[in-house]
Amino acid sequence: MRFHRTTIATAIATFVSLTFAQSEGNTMLPGAAAAAAASSASTYSCDTNVCKLANGCVCASKNPPNGLSPSDTPQFVTVTFDDSIQPQLYKTAKRMLNVTNPNGCSGRGTWYVSMQYTDFSLVQQWYSSGNEIADHTFSHVGTPSDQEIMSCKEMLNTYGGVPNGKIQGFRAPFLNYTKETLNHLSKLGFLYDSSSSALQDDAYWPYTLDYGMANDCWTGICGAGQTKLPGLWEIPMYAVLDNISTPQLMDVYISGQPEDVTKWSLDTFNKHYNGGRQPFGIYVHPTHLTGYPGLPDPAPKLDGLVSLIKTLSEKPDVWFVTNQQLLQWMKNPVKASELGKQDYMRCEQPVIAKEICNGLDDDNNGNVDDGLLNSCNFGTTTFNTCFNCPSTAPTLDTPKPANTAQAGSAGFRYPLPNDCDTKWWDPIGNACLCTSTECQYKDTAVPVNRTAGGNGVASNGSGSSSDANSILNNQLENVFLITVALVATLFL
Ligand SMILES: [Zn+2]
Fold first, then answer.
1. Are strands 441-443 and 237-238 parallel, antiparallel or unpaired?
2. 167 in helix, strand or coil?
3. Which whole number is the average pLDDT over 321-350?
4. Where are the strands (E) in 37-140, listed by range?
5. What is the pLDDT of residues 450-487, one digit of tens each?
6. Minimal CA–CA distance to 425: which of 357, 361, 349?
7. Cα(117) to centroid(ligand 1), Å
8. For residue 256, which of 20, 131, 213, 260 is within the disulfide window of CB 3.0 to 4.6 Å?
């Protein structure tokens, strides 16, 4: 049995809107469900004989790129965080990513940052420790203007010290984007968008928009003559189906008890892992997972997620990556066995003889940038930064007001130049401490041997590869059997 696509799309529109309403306090695309019902879903078409990776073009597909077999393909997991970065939220995110990739490097994630309440010293710490910083607009608005997107990017660079060339991704607040949003991103030189939603039948690997959108087609965005933006990538967000087959996209933990959320998530993960190895995503608002006085304790939800992530990390071919790392792999797909050797997967910290304000603990005393941060206060707006405080609070129109300190005066911080990475830049000493192509780095990878049970898989010490895998497979398959019958009514 198969439902007519428009029927499913309408149902999806309604359910997904509900999920967004819970997660960000707003509904996505009001009236979209009615619009989808009124018009048939537009179609996506991409010719693989013309669209080739060698030319920077990738068609939407549920199979791994370049004909790679699923068994040779890394299983990527992308953990993403949305909205402001604040000290307690930062701790929550770090706790979720406290896992090790098969090459011994710590798991990485992507933060889509909006400006209000953001502490820019933490933006820098997130970036310097190997994670990705991406754009989520200045004011946290849907269908944003160029200025909303660019003011955010300018502040991430100016106060967070993230090189402009490393701010490559965007997610629309409330996931409320249109083809105009994608046009803005292309014009502004972004590498990718990650605002669309994917279900089982359109759980595509990331693809370029040379042939337009292949997700959210119920909005009419996929048809011929809609969005065609060669070279701009779309990284779909992969929905998890709950026990009544409702797609849950962000903040799945809001919709069920931790054990339910784990079951739903493992089921979707297993479909990807045993299917086309499409990436699996965990998309959260850390504010929901962080305790505040007077509100219900979110610790069980966070503990459940941490446990889920730990379970996934025990698979020998699972990698926790940023969306930029995922796209680096898409551009040059290598087998899972080769992934750990790729430059973009390494984890190295610069060796710097003294503490500089670079988001790292250079002198290894347990504190990052100790005593070096500027604190900028404007009443309701307060943030720390390694760079100059603005003389007034940044606004959408003026994201970089004049500095309080003048160039050459005491206390002036020198902005990050284009030819030095943040990790090496001393904004007080006005020096790039990497002066050659052979700067000294310290490898921070730790020994990992998942196939020998060395990563906590077989904590009973039995330790063989087959033991470890069978334990996990049993867990996954039990969940799969329970849920497949429910899912089947809608999708099989
Ligand atoms: Zn948001």
1. unpaired
2. coil
3. 96
4. 75-82, 109-113, 132-135
5. 763 333 333 333 333 333 333 233 333 333 322 322 33
6. 357
7. 13
8. 260
Domain ranges for the chain, please list them: 5-345
How far is ligand 1, taken at its centre, from the CA of residue 112, in Å? Answer: 8
DSSP 90-115: HHHHHHHT--B-TTSPBP-EEEEE-S
Tokens 């073009």: give the residue. Answer: 57
Packing angle of the helix pair 299-313, 87-96 (nearest 10 deg): 40
pLDDT-wise least confident of 207-221, 269-283, 319-333, 467-481: 467-481
Greatest Cα pair distance, the chain, in angstroms, is 74
Distance of CA 131 from the midpoint of ligand 1 (Å) = 18
Express each pLDDT in 180-196 by its tens digit: 999 999 999 999 999 99
What is the Å distance from ligand 1's center to 283 Cα? 11
Asked whether the beta carbons of 252 and 267 are under 8 A apart, the reply is: no
Q: How far, in Å, from the CA of 176 to the mean position of ligand 1?
A: 10
Classify domain 5-345 by CATH number: 3.20.20.370
Number of H helices, E strands in the chain: 11, 19
* Strand ranges, E, within 235-356: 237-238, 240-241, 247-248, 280-284, 318-320, 348-350
Q: How far is the CA of 82 from the centre of ligand 1 (A)?
A: 5
Confidence of residue 489 (pLDDT cuts 50, 70, 90): very low
The reported pLDDT for the residue numbered 226 is: 87
Ligand 1 centroid – CA 400 distance (Å):
22
